[in-house]
Amino acid sequence: MPSTPQVQAAQVIDPSQNIPTISTSTQAQSSIKSHVTTEETINAEILWALKVVCSHYSFNSCHDIADYFALMFPDSNIAKKMSCGKDKISYLVSFGLGPYFQDLLKVKLKTVNDGFVLLYDESLNRELNKKQMDMHVRYWDTDKVVTRYYGSAFLGHATAQDMHEKLCENFHFDGKSVVQISMDGPNVNWALFKLLSEDLQKASEKKFVDIGSCGLHTMHNAFRAGLASTGWELGHLFSLLSWLFKDTPARREDFTSLTCSSDFPLEHCQHRWVENVEVAKRALK
After folding, report:
1. Which burial class, exposed, middle or buried, applies to 15 when counting CB atoms under 10 A from its CB (0-12, 13-18, 19+)?
2. CA distances from 37 to 73, 93, 132 (A)
3. How much of the chain is in helix, strand and coil states, percent to nearest 5?
4. Residue 255 in contact with residue 264, Cβ under 8 Å?
5. Other CB atoms within 10 Å distance of the CB of residue 33
6. pLDDT averaged per 10 residues, the chain (length 285)
7. pLDDT at residue 147, as a whole number
8. Cα 152 from Cα 65, distance rounded (Å)
9. Where does the source fall among the domains of life (predicted)?
10. Cβ–Cβ contacts within 10 Å for residue 252, how many?
11. Residue 213: what are its φ and ψ, rounded to 5°?
């Protein structure tokens, strides 16, 4: 019988050796799954990263934490697959969660009808041996004032022109949305304020609200002056209440036994009146 191409192909191909069976396919899938992070595991790692940030844990404190989770929860496959070392948490926070929350902040700032305040301050970063300029934004959100960290820029020279370039490079917003610039008082900052004011006037012929280098200090002083004009001497009263129970265990015990409360007066700050709301609430209580 002559050999045909079909017969030759049939002799070369052995279906039993080349066609994957159901069992081999299942084994391959299970092998792949063992090396793929599940969504539940990723969610657990994200939650732990958020806990690290909110509780101000250091990244080094996460060293070998996954091993502890596996020991604490031996019946959890999620805990066994978690890998939350210091390097992974650092990257997860810096390049995963950080950009996500910054995008949310950018969207929020675009919806703020009354504009927002841009705050910046620069100081020496000894770790990097560079000057670090931190940027924050402050805006009115429903029924309260919110201050949020926006980002940081690093400089060698920190002249007004250098800082102006870094602000324009990192702060991607139309200057018309910024109603006031909050800063320290050195001359270089006033020079930067002048440059930013010129940018705003070119874009919209508007001006920033000018209430001094730091609007918060101005508001504190205005609030303090208003209270002083009443003659109530609330600052003196709050200080006395705080001093009455400071380092006095006997008075604290008597107060607790009489009132069944362990909420003692809070310490009053004379130069930050706007932030003494909790002090006043505790005094009324």
Report:
1. exposed
2. 18, 18, 36
3. 55, 15, 30
4. yes
5. 9
6. 47 48 52 64 92 93 90 90 89 92 91 88 87 91 89 88 87 78 81 87 81 78 86 89 91 92 88 82 88
7. 92
8. 29
9. Eukaryota
10. 15
11. -65, -35
CA distance 50 to 274: 30
Burial of 178 (0-12, 13-18, 19+ CB in 10 A): buried
Q: Which two tokens stand for residue 218?
A: 């101005």
Report all structural domains of the chain as residue ranges with CATH numbers, in order of start: 39-99 (no CATH), 112-213 (3.30.420), 216-284 (no CATH)
Rounded distance, CA 19 to CA 8, Å?
A: 18
What is the DSSP secondary-structure string of 58-90? -GGGGTTHHHHHHHH-TT-HHHHH----HHHHH
pLDDT digits (tens, 9 = 90+) for 76-134: 888 888 888 889 999 999 999 999 999 999 999 988 888 899 998 888 888 888 999 99
pTM: 0.68
Residues in the chain: 285
Contact of 41 with 81, CB cutoff 8 Å: yes
Distance CA(253)–CA(260), nearest Å, equals 10
